Amino acid sequence: MENDITNQQELLAKNLAYYRKASGLTQLELADKFNYSDKSVSKWERGEGFPDIFVLKSLADFYGITVDDFYQSEHKAVKVSQNKKRKQTYLKLLSIGINWLVTVLTFFLLNTLLSRFAQDAPFESWLTFIYGTLTTGIILLVWEFIYHNRFLRMIAASIIIWTAALSLFLTFLVVMNLPLPLLFIAAIPLEVLEIIWYLFRRNRKK
Q: What is the model's pLDDT at position 19?
């Protein structure tokens, strides 16, 4: 009887690790999604402690399996990856679409106001598209922090770094007729630091 219980616990521990890895999540990423520490997840997978039935049910729903599947030696395909990635893509596209809708509306509004009431204003309405690119990078960065994709997070951070430099450069150039090429030089070490941080985090997870 004790051997059967032990075998079930070992199987549960192995399956908890299997389905987490099959979903493409680290222990920390899974812990964040369920408000646990990565140490708790690590203990579950080592068989030193186990989640209660309510957490097991939540995990099973998340992976697209049943609680009984955690106690089976035959593994089922994890559905979370496909469904979650599709949902994540839709949310990102929706957010970016709203961002650019606001950008385009702002452009036309500014264009109308400047042409009617402030024709001599130094500001140019087309700059809103540059700012729209910057806010797109910020939106992507927020989503990648939520979904824990380190590579896309690095890409989003790079977009922010360079579009921020471009936005400042063009704003100073257009509004004050003051070219500041040093802004792009200042962006280089930021980009290098971002890449180093990404590589450090990736190696640490490994």
A: 87
How many secondary structure helices (H) and strands (E) does the chain include?
8, 0
Q: Which domains does the chain have, with CATH numbers?
A: 2-71 (1.10.260.40), 81-205 (no CATH)
C-alpha–C-alpha distance, residues 42 and 102, integer Å: 44
Which residues does 73 contact at the CB level (< 8 Å), separation at least 6? Answer: 11
- pTM of the predicted model as reported, rounded to 2 decimal places: 0.61
Band the pLDDT of 165: cuts 50, 70, 90: very high
**Cα-based angle 82, 146, 86 (whole degrees, multiple of 5):** 20
Integer Cα distance of 3 and 57 in angstroms: 25
Which structure tokens are listed for 108? 């036309």
Distance, CA of 93 to CA of 143 (rounded, Å): 11
Rounded to whole angstroms, how far apart are CA atoms 92 and 84?
12
Say how far apart CA 19 and CA 126 lie, in whole Å: 49
Closest CA to 155 of 165, 146, 144: 144
Whether residue 194 has pLDDT greater than 70: yes
CB atoms within 10 A of CB 77: 10
Report the C-alpha gap between 28 and 25 in whole angstroms: 8
